[in-house]
Amino acid sequence: MTPVIHTRDLTRRYGSLAAVNGVSISLDENRIYGLLGRNGAGKTTLMSLLTGQEFATSGDIEVFGTSPVENAAVLQRVCFIKESQRYPDDFKIKHVLRSAPWFFPNWDPDFAAALVTDFNLPLNRKMKKLSRGQFSAVGVIVGLASRAPLTFFDEPYLGLDAVARQLFYDRLLADYADHPRTVVLSTHLIDEVADLLEHVLLIDAGRIIVDAPTDELRGSVVNVVGGRDAVDRFTAGREVLHSDGIGGLVSATVSRLTDAERTAARDAGLELTAVSLQQLVVRLTESTNNEFQESA
Fold it and tell me: Where is the domain boundary, 216, 245, 260?
């Protein structure tokens, strides 16, 4: 089966800065992916490359088996919703929704109307007069109602309050069940979307440092908690992603413990606690950044 997205050694440079650096990924159809990373890690640049809005410095990109650059047959199957979306100054919400079918063949006007009601949007208000939350809600509606086979959300929902964000997650999951497609969510709100994500791509300094199913990733790292001496003995010779403590109590984040090692830790009086996806992302990017600084 041909992947929806396939890249090989994809690189985008701005002068001496490699915003995307040697990225090789494959994304399958009908899955929800999380594209995670810190500010400036390369998330938006990568999505801009995949949607034909940026030109690669080197490497290859295939979307639906061919290049997305100036390719109408590909781009009409793609929806890219981003926080910095721009509209004509005189556009109202109703104009955005009326023009959407020109770009998205699978547009569902009834679903869009239901979402307008859900988010309580004023259809006759100009886009430039909207609050940040209302502006974000318009992007969410377009992304969902487009039903594009490949849909990118580049943090357009940051302006939404907690209730509205949960509404977005609920509507996304429900509609995805009825109308499967490939969805890529780029967000800093990792714990909020963790249960939606089937696969995680973690990018740092332009490089993909994690490309793994979410369930596999969650089980790959654990916190080992206990007395300092016991934790130090257990973690000796192991990769420790992070360690902190208060007084004599220490917590060390370690990766890839076998069942036998987990049993040995408990027999040594140590407690094993789960690491959330957000904590894992923080620990992995901290570790990668430290390695980069040491090699610089």
Answer: 216
Q: pLDDT band for 217, please (50, 70, 90 cuts).
A: confident
Same domain membership, residue 232 and residue 159: no
Give the Cα separation of 239 and 291 in Å (integer): 13
Question: What's the pLDDT band for 292 if we cut at 50, 70, 90?
Answer: very low
Q: What is the CATH number of the domain that holds 266?
A: 3.30.70
Better pLDDT: 158 or 131: 131
Residue 130 has pLDDT above 80, yes or no: yes
- pLDDT confidence tier of residue 294, bands split at 50, 70 and 90: very low
pLDDT band at 293 (very low <50, low <70, confident <90, very high): very low
Q: What is the 3-class SS of the chain, one letter each residue?
A: CCCCEEEEEEEEEECCEEEEEEECCEECCCCEEEEECCCCCCHHHHHHHHCCCCCCCEEEEEECCECCCCCHHHHCCEEEEECCCCCCCCCEHHHHHHHHHHHCCCCCHHHHHHHHHHHCCCCCCEHHHCCHHHHHHHHHHHHHHCCCCEEEEECCCCCCCHHHHHHHHHHHHHHHHHCCCEEEEECCCHHHHCCCCCEEEEEECCEEEEEEEHHHHHCCEEEEEEEHHHHHHHHCCCCEEEEEEECCEEEEEEECCCHHHHHHHHHCCCEEEECCHHHHHHHHHHHHHHHHHHHC
- Do 91 and 119 fall within a single domain? yes
